[in-house]
Amino acid sequence: MSGLSWMLALLAAAYLLVGFYGMVFRDRGALDLRLRWLSQQTAAKEASPDAITETIQYQPYPPWAFFSGQLFVLSMSWAASKIYFAGVNLVALLSLVWWLILIGKGYSNVERWFVICTAFAVAGMAVCLRLGQYSIIVTACLAWMIWLLERKKELLAGILLGVAMIKPHLAIPFACIPLVRRQWRCLMVTLIYLAVGTLVSGVDSGESLLESFRGMNNAIHKDMRMGLLDGLKWIGLNHVQVMVIGLVVGGSICIWFIHKYQHVSSLTLAALCAVTSLLWSYSRRYDQSLLFFLMVAIASRVPNPHGRNAWFPFLVVGITVWTPFTEPLWHGCLPVVIGAIWIFGVAWLCVETSAQVAVKQADVSKSVGPTNSSFCDS
Q: Which of 257, 276, 68 has the alpha carbon at shortest distance from 172?
């Protein structure tokens, strides 16, 4: 395990260095961040007319995103904005390391190191950083939201969920966790945050809700893949119809699984939500930063004394996460096959953790009565 840990550590370091270098130093790096930066300049009346047209025609974010975006993209020079955004992502990554340390207190240093190396050896993180996307920041917000929910701190969890809604197609499945567990205060705070964000965004940017949704619609039609059901376009359905079907079907399946397996650890549920986020609607390679949850959930079972069965799903799912597929390859049957592998990984997790929790509860009930499931898959 030690040798594999160092191999994954080198891979993670390579991906993160390539991503940060592409964001900060490459002339054509951080293309998506530049659109967010132009949006801030537009709101501050400092952008050129051509830049304003560019941001309105291609604005793939919801109306409340400008409010949250002000935390991550400041209205300063372009060079300074790239450095600042790189710093924000570095903080997000370090917070995820700390999150892993907190949830892995029952592990030895060698086992914890193995899980940490696995968590960041994600090819999608390099793409996210290179383009200047929000996906790593969203991953950090969702991780800490789950940690806070476990400790009944619903108000702070709701704020973090609201911030993560800057990319709603990634964050909404995670909202199913407090929904199924009836943690209403978390959801209420999130809705208030989105309402305030929408109001402030409209006042500051001068952009109407109609213009904002028009930009989102343009983005959807420019990006061809619409999740696991993208093949429905072959029978004549358009992007919007495929998206609606995917949201309904994917959302229903996600809620059903969370309800059925709500007794398992929140880490397993986070892995389920992450895979749903990537398969139920529009997503790109940079959104695969969310596979952080899936890899941590599987890797945390490998050091287990009974974890021999974990090696097969760990390696099979890992290959799809570690391999730096280029965008031209991400078409045809490949995304479908890889999506099926992710589903297999989540299904294996649900079955394995459910069986283990049942055994633990049976053992504990003989002495001290029922117990809640552990947060970490150990």
A: 276
**Which residues does 211 contact at the CB level (< 8 Å), separation at least 6?**
56, 59
Asked whether 120 and 16 are in contact (CB, 8 A), the reply is yes
List Cα–Cα distances, 36 to 9, 70, 72, in angstroms. 31, 9, 10
Quick one: DSSP state of residue 372?
P
Query: What's the N-to-C CA distance of the chain in angstroms?
Result: 17
Closest CA to 292 of 15, 71, 30: 15
How many other CB atoms sit within 10 Å of the CB of residue 153?
14
CA distance 80 to 118: 32
Rounded CA separation 39/49 (Å): 12
* Maximum average pLDDT range among 45-59, 185-199, 344-358: 185-199
Q: Give the distance between the most distant pair of CA atoms in the chain.
A: 72
pLDDT of residue 283: 81
Neighbouring CB atoms inside 10 A of 309's CB total: 13
Task: Quick: pLDDT tens for 183-234.
Answer: 999 999 999 999 998 888 765 555 545 555 555 555 555 555 667 776 676 7
DSSP H helical ranges for 64-183:
65-72, 78-103, 109-120, 123-131, 135-150, 154-164, 168-180
Q: What single DSSP character describes residue 258?
A: H
Pair 269, 145: CB distance under 8 Å: no
Closest CA relative to residue 270, chosen from 183, 368, 176, 157: 176
Q: Which amino acid is at 186?
A: C
**Residue entry with tokens 């992502």:** 89
